[in-house]
C-alpha cells in the first residue's frame, strides 16, 4: 500500500498505445527495446519501483510525438528474464497521475515530473458500483465477446467484484486509443462502467450513431 507521501515527483513513463493500466489492476508486459530494458533496470533500483503507463496522442503523420496528460503508475511487482535478454514483467496499478512536464536530459527513455493531486481515491479501497445492472451488463458482454470472437472465463467474470470486473474489461477490450484514454480518465467506477457500456453498444451497432439502445 502506498500513501500520498510515498509517491515520487518524477517517474519513468512507458508510452504504449492501447495498453491501459488502472489502479489495483495488473498489466503484464513484454519488454525488448534497449531503452525500455534500461528503464526497467533503473526502476528496479528504486525503493518504490514505480513506472507510469501513458498513451501517446494521435497526431498527423510526420507531426511531433505527444503524450496524453494523464497516465497511471504501477509498481513493478513481477519480473523475469528470458534467455535472449528480454524482460517479462507485471505492473500492479497504484495511482493515476497528471504530467507536469517531460524531463529533459540524456536518459534513453522518457521521464516526467508528475502530480498525483486529484487522484487520492486511487490509493484507497476498491470501489463499488451501485448502479451496475449485472444481468444487462453480462448479456451485453456476451454479445460483444461473440461478435469480437473473444474468449474468457465466464464463471470468473460472473463472480468478480464490481471494480475487478469493470476495470479488467476496460483494460482488456480492444478499444481505440482515445476510447482507452476516456476509460482511464473516468472519475469514478460508475462513470467508467457507463463509458464501457457505451463503447460496447457502439461496437455492436457497427460503429453507427443514432440507433436506439439494444435490448
Query: What's the number of extended β-strand segments?
Result: 6
Mean pLDDT: 91
Widest β-sheet, arrangement of strands = 1-3-4-5-6
How many domains? The number is: 2
Just name the CATH architecture of the largest domain: Roll
What's the CATH first level of the largest domain? Answer: Mainly Beta
Which structural category do the helix and sheet elements fall into?
A: alpha+beta
Number of helical elements: 6
How is the CATH topology of the largest domain named?
A: Archaeosine Trna-guanine Transglycosylase, Chain: A, domain 4
CATH homologous superfamily title of the largest domain = LON domain-like
Tell me the radius of gyration: 18 Å
The general outline is globular
Q: Which sheet architecture does the biggest sheet show?
A: 5 strands, mixed, barrel
Secondary structure: helix percent: 25-40%
Strand content: 15-25%
Distance between the termini: 41 Å
Q: H/E order of the elements?
A: EEHEEEEHHHHH
Low-confidence stretches at least 5 residues in length (pLDDT < 50)?
Answer: 208-215
In short:
This protein is of the alpha+beta class. The chain is built from six helices and six strands; from the N terminus they run ββαββββααααα.
Written overview of the protein:
There is one protein chain. The protein has 215 residues and is α+β, with helices and mostly antiparallel strands. It folds into 2 domains: 120 residues, Archaeosine Trna-guanine Transglycosylase, Chain: A, domain 4, CATH 2.30.130.40; 71 residues. It is built from 6 helices and 6 strands; from the N terminus they run E-E-H-E-E-E-E-H-H-H-H-H. The longest helix has 16 residues. The termini are far apart. This is Lon N-terminal domain-containing protein. InterPro entries: Lon_prtase_N, Lon_prtase_N_sf, PUA-like_sf. Pfam families: LON_substr_bdg.
Amino acid at each position: 500500500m502506498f500513501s500520498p507521501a510515498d509517491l515520487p515527483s518524477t517517474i519513468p513513463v512507458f508510452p504504449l498505445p492501447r495498453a491501459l493500466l488502472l489502479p489495483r489492476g495488473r498489466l503484464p508486459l513484454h519488454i525488448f527495446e534497449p531503452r525500455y530494458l534500461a528503464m526497467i533496470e533503473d526502476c528496479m533500483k528504486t525503493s518504490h519501483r514505480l513506472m507510469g503507463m501513458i498513451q501517446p496522442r494521435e497526431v498527423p503523420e510526420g507531426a511531433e510525438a505527444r503524450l496524453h496528460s494523464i497516465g497511471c503508475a504501477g509498481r513493478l511487482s513481477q519480473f523475469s528474464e528470458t534467455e535472449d535478454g528480454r524482460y517479462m514483467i507485471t505492473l500492479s496499478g497504484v495511482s493515476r497521475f497528471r504530467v507536469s512536464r517531460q524531463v529533459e536530459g540524456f536518459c534513453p527513455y522518457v521521464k516526467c515530473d508528475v502530480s498525483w493531486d486529484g487522484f487520492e481515491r486511487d490509493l484507497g479501497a476498491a470501489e463499488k458500483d451501485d448502479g451496475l445492472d449485472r444481468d444487462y451488463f453480462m448479456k451485453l458482454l456476451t454479445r460483444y465477446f461473440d461478435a469480437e470472437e473473444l474468449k474468457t472465463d465466464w464463471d470468473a467474470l460472473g463472480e468478480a467484484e464490481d471494480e475487478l470486473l469493470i476495470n479488467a474489461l476496460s483494460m482488456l477490450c480492444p478499444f481505440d486509443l482515445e476510447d482507452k484514454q476516456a476509460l482511464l480518465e473516468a472519475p469514478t467506477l460508475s462513470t467508467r462502467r457507463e463509458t464501457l457500456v457505451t463503447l460496447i453498444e457502439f461496437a455492436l451497432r457497427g460503429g453507427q450513431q443514432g440507433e436506439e439502445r439494444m435490448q
